Each structure stands twice: as C-alpha cells, then as structure tokens.
C-alpha cells in the first residue's frame, strides 16, 4: 500500500473526509468524482483545478480540528502542509 497523501488531497476537492482511510478505499471514493482516475497517468486531473480553493479550505478545516484534538493527526497525513504549499504557489502565480 502506498501513502494515500495525494489521493486524499484530490478527494477533498470534492468532499470533506475526516477519518483514516486505506489507499484502495480512497481510490474508490475518488473514482466516483473522477471516473477515469489513474494516478500514474495524470499529476493533477483537470476537474480539480476549479475546486482547488475548496480543497484548501477543507484541508485548513481539518488541520484546525487536529490542532484542537478533535481529530487524530493521522486523519490528515499531508493536506495541511500541501494546502499551504498550493496556496503559496497560487499567490506566486497571481502576483
């Protein structure tokens, strides 16, 4: 099993997710939103681009819940750091 970090990041473009999850289950949920999803074929699938701000907000919400001990730190293996990175990259692009 691989680290589901990017799949979780992709999933929160479409919905909140606040629990630990296996990569297989995560891919199954993601395929409901991106039916032809194949991790090896696309770094950032087109349907995600317009939803990036929502994903950043969801990741920040999860990070705050982890800080308040309302969620396990393992519920969000990468999204808070990735959201900060994406926000920084977007601000560079817009400046």
Q: Can you describe this structure?
A:
This protein is mostly helical and 95 residues long. It has one domain (5-94). The protein is 57% helix and 0% strand. It has five helices and no strands. Helix 1 packs parallel to helix 2 (23-33) and helix 4 packs across helix 5 (79-94). It starts with a helix and ends with a helix.
How many separate domains make up the residues?
1
Low-confidence stretches: none
Q: Helix amount, in percent?
A: 55-70%
Q: Radius of gyration over alpha carbons?
A: 13 Å
Helix/strand order, N-terminal first: HHHHH
Characterize the overall form: flat
Strand content: under 5%
By helix and strand content, what is the structural category? mainly alpha
In total, the number of strands is 0
Mean pLDDT over the full residue set: 79
Major sheet, described briefly? none
Distance between the amino and carboxyl termini: 39 Å
The total count of helices amounts to: 5
Outline of this structure?
Helix content is 57%, strand content 0%.
Write the layout of secondary structure elements.
Blueprint: H1 5-11, H2 23-33, H3 46-49, H4 52-67, H5 79-94
Helix pairs in contact: 1-2, 4-5
Give short descriptive properties of this protein.
95 residues, mainly alpha, 57% helix
């Amino acid at each position: 099993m691989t680290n589901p970090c990017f799949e979780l990041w992709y999933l929160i473009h479409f919905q909140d997710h606040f629990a630990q999850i296996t990569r297989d289950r995560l891919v199954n949920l993601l395929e409901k939103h991106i039916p032809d999803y194949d991790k090896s074929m696309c770094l950032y699938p087109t349907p995600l681009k317009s939803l990036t701000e929502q994903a950043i907000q969801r990741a920040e919400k999860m990070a705050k819940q982890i800080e308040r001990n309302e969620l396990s730190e393992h519920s969000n293996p990468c999204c808070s750091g990735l959201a900060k990175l994406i926000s920084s990259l977007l601000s560079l692009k817009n400046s």
